[in-house]
Amino acid sequence: MKDLKFGVLFLLVTYLFSFPLVNYVSAQSDVEKKNGVLMSQLQLSHAGAKGDIKKRMENMKAIGAEMKRIGLIVRGRNPFDGSIVAAASERIVLNGRGAIGLFSKKNYERPSRASPKIWRDWEEFARSMNAMVRAATVLAEAGRAGNEKAVKSGYRALGKTCSGCHRKFRERKKRYP
Ligand code: HEC
Fold first, then answer.
1. Rounded to an integer, what is the distance from CA 109 to the centroid of its chain?
2. Is the peptide bond before 79 cis (omega within 30 degrees of 0)?
3. How far apart are alpha carbons 94 and 115 in whole angstroms?
4. Quick check: CB of 42 below 6 Å from ligand 1?
5. For 113, which of 3, 44, 166, 175 is 20 to 30 Å away at the CA?
6. CA 132, CA 158: separation in Å to the nearest integer?
């Protein structure tokens, strides 16, 4: 009887703890996967951190181009097309997911405008990037649903995540004459 009680208790405890544990483990392996990709890229290019700076600037530039595409629709310059909004938002999601790995190495040499604060407050920086990815996911859904009103509010919400991070983690242009 006692053994049975312990057995049930053991199962219950394992069950309760399995969820966060599983999440933690999969998050870990995700990071490892990304690092694996990063490492092979570094080895291929032999360019070291310089290569990463270039890649992350290009990554952000691509995000900016997608945002511009959506902005033209939101402002009525281009006719409403939810599928264009969805596709552009999905590319922002993909770039956002890739961006965090490109910032993992501390480097803010010119011409990078990355602030050293990124590596002093990495948690906040990563949270900020995740917020962008989440907002872009919401916007993609609004586009897929063809919901013009939701696209407008989703675009504004996404824009706030850009400016929020830039204010805190991107240096002003004038630092580099
Ligand atoms: C978590 C932080 C973060 C978020 C969120 C973020 N950015 Fe950035 N962005 C940066 C940093 C840091 C740089 C500077 C990178 C560098 O120069 O190394 C940058 C640079 C840029 C640049 C200049 C790229 C170039 O040509 O050098 C553009 C354009 C840009 N971001 C657009 C966006 C847009 C649009 C969004 C939102 C959809 C966004 N960013 C969201 C951190 C962020």
1. 22
2. no
3. 23
4. no
5. 44
6. 6
Alpha helices in the chain (DSSP H): 2-45, 48-74, 82-102, 117-120, 122-144, 148-169
Mutational pocket test of ligand 1: of 60, 119, 132, the residue with most ligand atoms within 8 Å of the beta carbon: 60
User: Where in the chain are the domains?
Assistant: 1-46, 48-175
Which pLDDT tens digit goes with each residue over 106-142? 999 888 999 999 999 999 999 999 999 999 999 999 9
Q: Which of these CATH numbers, 3.40.50.2000, 3.40.1030.10, 3.30.1330.10, 1.20.120.10, describes 48-175?
A: 1.20.120.10
Give residue 96 CA to ligand 1 midpoint distance, Å. 10
Place of tokens 């969820």: 19
pLDDT of residue 17: 46
Residue 118 in tokens: 């990124």
Q: What is the mean pLDDT of each run of 10 residues along the chain (177 residues)?
A: 62 48 37 42 40 92 98 98 98 97 92 95 98 98 98 98 98 68
